[in-house]
Write a structure and sequence with these properties.
2 domains; 6% strand; 4 strands
Length: 309
């Protein structure tokens, strides 16, 4: 792949590239300004000093608006991977198949696979880097709002900051790419990609939940701590057995209608300690990245085997 072919790819996908890169640059720039003004004004003390938090300095100043902007910015981060992935991945092959330019390109290129690589690689790298920029920006904004928290050992904002934002964008782009190569139509590609991405997200979450349940720590008197990842609530029976609420009625029918403090039944909670944040993040990123590569391979096969028309 040469610089010339890369520039040609971005020229063909000029609108999509401009939107994705522009959104990432704008988000990073606005967030950088918010963080700089917030720190320069000393408003970070409002989050750590309880006495200062109730003063006019914290309650009626530009710091309030800066905090609101930061919260809004964080709330829309999960939307970016979906929009960026669909815009970047969907039209890569579908647009050229729909317009008919792919047939001419295939007749001139040494191979369809080389053509595919020249079109796909730059845009997927762009999507990954844009998602990484957004994820790192989300980390910075989260630290701004909760300066006393160690984000490297906390599940606050899980899947909405850091590495996973970039991998999610790559996955969406790869799914859209494969549908575009198979269908050759942009609009159906976008619609079906949304459906499949949603289904994949639910499936991955279910599998991850099962894995984490087996690895979870048991908290006897666990009070909610946002740094930890809550998994489930269970019951510890008088004989020490840990059961779910559904299992209670089957295994211990005598407690089906309720129990009192003398029963010896206690509430317990399954959770993942915040210290395991990066372990869980890397594992999920690896799984999503692997799925993304499978869809890229599927798209490549579809392009190679597609009949010219």
């Amino acid at each position: 792949m040469t610089l010339r072919s890369t520039l040609l790819t971005f020229r063909i996908q000029r609108f999509e590239s401009t939107v994705v890169i522009g959104a990432a640059v704008l988000s990073v720039a606005v967030s950088a300004i918010v963080i700089a003004l917030y720190n320069a004004g000393g408003y970070g003390r409002c989050m750590t000093d309880e006495a200062l938090a109730s003063t006019t300095f914290c309650q009626a100043s530009i710091g309030v608006w800066l905090n609101r902007i930061a919260r809004v910015s964080l709330s829309i981060v999960p939307v970016f991977p979906v929009i960026a992935g669909l815009l970047a991945g969907g039209p890569i092959v579908a647009k050229e198949l729909e317009s008919g330019t792919a047939r001419l390109a295939w007749s001139l290129a040494p191979s369809r696979l080389q053509w595919f690589g020249q079109r796909v690689l730059p845009l997927l790298v762009m999507t990954l880097l844009a998602g990484l920029a957004i994820g790192m920006t989300a980390d910075a904004l989260m630290h701004l709002m909760q300066p006393s928290m160690n984000l490297d050992a906390s599940f606050v904002g899980f899947r909405g900051r850091g590495l996973l934002v970039a991998i999610e964008a790559l996955l969406v782009a790869s799914v859209a790419l494969s549908f575009g190569a198979i269908l050759g139509r942009t609009i159906p590609t976008i619609v079906l990609s949304l459906v499949l991405v949603f289904a994949i997200g639910m499936a991955v979450d279910k599998v991850e939940r099962e894995l984490l349940t087996n690895e979870a720590v048991l908290g006897v008197d666990f009070s909610f701590n946002e740094e930890n990842l809550y998994i489930d609530s269970r019951l510890r029976m008088p004989d020490g057995t840990i059961v779910t609420w559904d299992q209670l009625n089957t295994l211990y029918p005598q407690y089906a209608n309720g129990w009192d403090e003398t029963s010896g039944i206690t509430d317990v909670t399954l959770y993942i300690p915040g210290e395991r944040y990066h372990d869980v993040e890397r594992r999920e990123a690896s799984a999503l990245g692997g799925i993304a590569l499978l869809f890229v391979g599927l798209a490549a096969v579809a392009v190679v085997r597609r009949r010219p028309r």
